[in-house]
Specification:
single chain; four-stranded mixed β-sheet; globular; 2,3-Dihydroxybiphenyl 1,2-Dioxygenase, domain 1; 141 residues; 2 domains; Signal recognition particle alu RNA binding heterodimer, srp9/1
Amino acid sequence: MSLSPESGARPPHGRVSGPSIDGHVVFFYYDDLAAPTAFYGGDLGLEQTRDIGWVRFFRIGATGEVAIVKAGPDSYFAPQSNNAVMLSIVTDELDAWYRRLKANNGIRFLLDLQVHRKAPIRNFLISDPGGYAIEFYQWTG
């Protein structure tokens, strides 16, 4: 199945051709976990599912999580001044998310609500305390 912007097709859901996948986690690295904990747990209101001290997990959907990691000598990566990683959150309640986050003066918007020029989506982008981009989008096709 082609997923080109012109096709308007939604990605397939469900099975993979191979062993099963039970979920996915995106890991973001920080020097301190206080601000990202407040952002993901407070500002976004995501449920914290695990806290093992140096890493905290927050649920995004049924099988997805974002984890915030305290960088240190044993961590795989270190925080970067310019992060080329974006977490995209798909929601059918895009307008409600936009209103909620726009009402919070502490949220830094990278892109206001728009209809994407090339992809069959509406979206907006914000930044988390570590500079990671968070996209909220809704399929339109």
